[in-house]
Write a structure and sequence with these properties.
The complex is a heterodimer. By secondary structure, chain A is α+β, with helices and mostly antiparallel strands. Chain A contains nine helices and 21 strands. Chain A is elongated and about 75 Å long. Chain B is flat and about 75 Å long. Chain B has a two-stranded antiparallel ribbon with strand order 1-2. Classes of the chains: A alpha+beta, B mainly alpha.
């Protein structure tokens, strides 16, 4: 089912009586969620993503705008008539009912011509349970299940009525790291198998990127960018989106465009075309750095973190807006870097109490070791200093 | 090692000593004493002597028409007031939780009887219900207004007196129940109601299948304490009908125990003890039945 949001707005009255202004949780949303896709609503806490989900579910009423499921205008329908399944952040399983009773609960509410016989209900409940692989837990109470199992039960309960749209509110936030990986694949699989349009909310960009067909990045109630995860990552619309996506995060610098060259500090790092001379913010993805002995971009090496497949070169630069610059390069470069091993791989060093968990401090060395990079232009983004909008350039 | 363990055990007992001493002297010893008294036949409290040991005290008490009247009164009181007060309190609490404005004001009003002196409340009830030479009382005036004939609720027929006693008891015990139930209701996580709403659950079904099970431990607590409290009723009857409850046919079991000890016909600690033990076994039985029922219906 296609979900269309049209100028959707939600304002909450301000708690502070002196301030008359309402709090705008969702500001004039217009976008279309295509049928049968998995969509991630992504943003920092307080950005209005849960409010958006609740507006789609019907648990809260919008201040303005319309919501369509396919051709149907559902804006004024109560939640039960919209044909949605909702999985709550803490699952909201009824603790006094068994798993089976929990899954049956929505079916038992059906009235009139939709009413099902006992055996039909059981068949549907077992079908949903099979989909999420919890058939053997049907007689247990939610308190006797692990977090991941509870999550599956919650999904089964949301799916049992075959909703038109499945909504998941922070579905993975209550799970530990390993289970999170497993469960997100599970959500992806269930969505593929059922083909139900699924919208989920998360603040974890990795989570959203990994399983969504499309992500919607939000900030302060305003949509920043909508697109396929890779497209959004490769081409962020503004500084916020660039900063929000990617681990390790993007490296930001104060820079300047002068005479068709991009300067970071004193270094002319790239030759570029099509940009007026101005001061800019420069964002460089960690994988956009290339170690090169005569590279144009010079930084002070402060440490190296070994991650097995890659190494992360931690360095500093005066123009950097972050505390340190993080560049990810292949592990084969390990021997070539001046300082050699400086990271947490050295056990003696960490015992001296100077180890900060991030990287070894630069004070350890009397003279800072310089490290030089060349930049991959496809991984470099320029942003306007005032509007923080992306400035496109050509090489 | 073993010695150390023994020592630490001893230490534990030492810490418990004040509580054990206190409970032993003021609870356990009197209980045992009452039990012994109840079997001592013809006990004389002045000379501290008795004739023999046996079941005579129980036989006397169980054949005493005043005691049987008291048992009947107590049971009627329990059976009417416990379910009614709990049910009404639940209704009022649900009402209170579903309104927003003036909620605190109403909560305060409903809680007032709890902090009001029993005898003062009794006096107010007397004024409302009592028929005197000068006036028939507020309630009777109301009855007359609607075309009924006035009834003497305080010195009149048995059912009228029992009605006032039950009404009074319900009114007195409700505030505490409302307090407990409103807090129980507000502790039910809103997310369950949202989940029910998304699933299209009707209001009634939400209440029966979600709210009630979720607050069932508190309801159970109220029912158990309600039963015990009602079985021990005494001061309420005194507040309404004075100290000569036997004459008013409004005595309760605890009232009978008092009368046997201190009343005009008093001075029989053996009979009082036997009556007290009978009450104890009644309360014990009812509580056990309650616990058995609760196993199925209370969800922790």
């Amino acid at each position: 089912m296609e979900v269309v949001l049209q100028n959707l707005t939600k304002k909450f009255p301000s708690r502070d009586r002196k301030k008359r202004e309402d709090v705008v949780a969702v500001d004039n949303f217009t976008f279309t969620i295509p049928d049968g896709k998995l969509i991630g609503l992504l943003g920092p806490s307080g950005c209005g993503k849960s409010t958006t989900l609740n507006l789609i579910s019907g648990l809260i009423k919008p201040t303005g705008g319309r919501i369509f499921f396919g051709k149907d205008d559902v804006t004024d329908l109560p939640p039960e008539n919209r044909g949605i399944g909702l999985v709550f952040q803490n699952y909201a399983l009824y603790p006094h009912l068994t798993v089976k009773q929990n899954i049956l609960f929505p079916l038992e509410n059906l009235k009139g011509k939709d009413k099902l016989s006992k055996s039909e209900m059981l068949a549907k409940a077992y079908e949903a349970a099979k989909l999420v692989q919890i058939e053997e837990l049907m007689e247990r109470k939610p308190g006797e299940l692990s977090g991941g199992q509870q999550q599956r039960v919650a999904i089964a309960r949301a799916l049992v009525k075959m909703p038109r749209v499945l909504l998941l509110d922070e579905p993975l936030s209550n799970l530990d790291a390993r289970l999170r990986l497993q469960t997100r694949e599970e959500i992806r699989r269930i969505q593929r198998e059922t083909g139900i349009t699924t919208i989920f909310v998360t603040h974890d960009q990795e989570e959203a990127m990994s399983i969504s067909d499309m992500i919607v990045v939000m900030k302060d109630g305003v949509v920043q960018q909508i697109g396929k995860p890779q497209d959004v990552y490769d081409s962020p619309a503004n500084l916020f989106v660039a900063k929000f996506l990617g681990t390790p995060p993007i490296n930001l610098f104060e820079g300047q465009v002068k005479e068709n060259r991009l300067y970071i500090g004193e270094d002319a790092v790239l030759k570029i075309k099509g940009v007026e001379e101005q001061k800019v913010f420069v964002g460089v993805r960690p994988e956009g750095f290339r170690l090169q002995e005569d590279g144009p971009f010079c930084c002070e090496l402060s440490g190296i973190e070994v991650m097995g497949r890659d190494i992360s070169v931690v360095s500093r630069n005066k123009a950097s807006l972050n505390a340190s610059i993080r560049a990810i390069v292949g592990a084969e470069h390990l021997g070539k870097i001046g300082g050699g091993y400086v990271g947490d791989a050295d056990p003696d060093r960490s015992e001296e109490g100077v180890f900060t968990g991030e990287s070894a401090p630069v004070e350890e060395k009397a003279v800072a070791t310089p490290v030089r990079f060349a930049l991959n232009p496809g991984k470099v983004f320029l942003f306007n200093r005032e509007t923080e909008e992306r400035i496109h350039f050509e090489v | 090692m073993r010695k150390k363990l023994a020592e630490s055990g001893l230490k534990g007992w030492l810490y418990l000593l004040p509580a054990i001493l206190f409970l032993g002297v003021f609870m356990v010893y009197p209980l045992i004493d009452v039990f012994i008294y109840s079997f001592e036949e013809g006990y004389n409290s002045a000379s501290q002597t008795y004739f023999g040991v046996g079941w005579y005290n129980y036989s006397y008490v169980l054949h005493d028409p005043y005691f049987l009247q008291a048992v009947k009164n107590t049971f009627i009181l329990v059976i009417i007031t416990v379910p009614l007060s709990t049910g009404l309190a639940l209704l009022i609490s649900v009402g209170l939780s579903s309104i927003k404005p003036l909620r605190e004001l109403f909560q305060t009003i409903y809680f007032l009887p709890y902090v009001t002196n029993t005898l003062a409340v009794g006096l107010v009830f007397m004024i409302l219900f009592k028929k005197t030479a000068y006036t028939d009382g507020m309630i009777n005036l109301l009855i007359q207004l609607f075309g009924g004939s006035s009834v003497d609720f305080i010195d009149g027929p048995y059912w009228a007196k029992m009605f006032v006693l039950c009404l009074y008891t319900i009114w007195v015990v409700m505030p505490f129940k409302i307090l407990i139930l409103t807090s129980a209701l507000s502790s039910v996580n809103q997310v369950y109601y949202n989940a029910a709403k998304v699933d299209g659950t009707s209001k009634l079904r939400t209440f029966m299948r979600i709210t009630l099970p979720m607050i069932s431990p508190m309801i159970f607590y109220l029912v158990i304490t309600g039963f015990i409290g009602a079985f021990k009723a005494y001061s309420d009857a005194v507040a309404l009908f004075g100290t000569n409850l036997n004459a008013a046919e409004m005595n309760t079991i605890v009232g009978y125990v008092y009368d046997m000890l201190y009343g005009d016909s008093g001075g029989y600690p053996s009979y009082a003890s036997a009556a007290a033990i009978i009450l104890f076994s009644i309360v014990l039985t009812i509580t056990c039945i309650n616990l058995l029922i609760s196993k199925k219906n209370v969800h922790y």
